[in-house]
Amino acid sequence: MSTDQLAPRRILVTGVGGAPGFDLARALMRLGCHVIAGDSNPLAPGLLLPDVTPRVTAPAAHPSYRAGLLRLCGELRPHAILSAVEQELSKLVTLRRPLADLGVTTWLPDPDAIETCTDKAAFLAALTKHSVPTPHTVLPHDIDELCDGRGLVVKPRLGQGAQNVYFCRTREQARILCELVPEPIVQEQVAGQEFTADCLVDRAGRASVILRYRLLVKGGLAVVSETFHDQETEDRVRQTLAAVGAAGACCAQGFICEGSAERVVMTEVNARVGGGFPASEAAGADLTGQLLAGLFEHHVDHERLRYAPAVRLTKYTETLTSEGTQP
Question: Among candidates 218, 190, 208, which has minimal Cα distance to 276?
Fold first, then answer.
């Protein structure tokens, strides 16, 4: 069935304060869906999108998250929920049955896959097991395994969105930075062209991969992206998705390191849409439409996920509303 034939749906999109959730809400509305926009921050810009039903939700770590989400779904009766918040995913897995009882569809990886995508140490273990090249990564007590002078990255083991990520040159600097970063890991910095792959893995495990260079990155978000084709990179992304057990919409990141022993090195997989996925759609990939089809267990048409290379998309800050009184 074509996604054009799907009846309009009510979709709860959480995390509309960030680029992935914000853009996903907009893309769904363009397909005729009614979006219930949720975020734990009452100042989240996605709550101000025209024609959404805005709701402030409890943070995933809050004790009231479970009851609050079920209450919201009982009140507004969405047909499905799509989360752009990685910390929510493990909670949503445990809520699949009560959500289904309310008529709410989910499409989530299994718990092990979610842990692998959110825990960088688990990600390293999975890729190492499947012989997928990834930067040398250690916990703080193993910093002496890393080489001085090559560039090191200190980041949270469970972080996202480039928060609390620091770059340094020496092991001693890395030790100091580990005091500032919650549950840190230390990673060798990779030199090369950074890329993101916007991916959709259907329920049979077949993956479509749309590649884009991260030409300008601010706060972890690729604000300028350009699509490209490269078979070796595409194959490496598929190998990575299989290693972590990805399902549904997700995005993978890595580096193309020309002249190195390993040309394509993978750095992470996020079990949600990527913040720059509109670039893939601008290049012709029906990413949101096929996500919607797979979400409701219709056939995912991978032919509609083909895309053109050399399509560049630039994101910018937009004013949604101005409030207050003038003198």
Answer: 218
What CA–CA distance (Å, rounded) separates 159 from 118?
8
3 state DSSP class of 143: helix
- Per-residue pLDDT band for 320 (boundaries 50, 70, 90) equals confident
**Within 10 A of 234 (CB to CB), how many other CB atoms are there?**
17
Pick the CATH number of 3-106 from 3.60.9.10, 3.40.50.20, 2.60.40.1940, 3.40.50.12500: 3.40.50.20
- State pTM to two decimals: 0.93
Interacting residues of 268 by C-beta distance below 8 A, sequence separation 6+? 117, 120, 123, 252, 253
The correct CATH number of 136-188 out of 2.60.40, 3.30.1490, 3.10.490, 3.30.70 is 3.30.1490
- Alpha-carbon distance of 200 to 230, in angstroms, equals 18
Domain edges within the chain: 3-106, 136-188, 192-314
CATH number of 192-314: 3.30.470.20
CA–CA gap between residue 242 and residue 227 (Å, rounded):
23
State how beta strands 137-138 and 166-168 pair: unpaired
**Distance, C-alpha 95 to centroid of its chain:** 20
Range in 5-19, 132-146, 203-217 the model is least confident about: 5-19
Q: Is the pLDDT of residue 5 over 70?
A: no
Residue 57 contacts by C-beta under 8 Å, 6 or more apart in sequence?
Answer: 14, 38, 39, 40, 65, 68, 69, 72
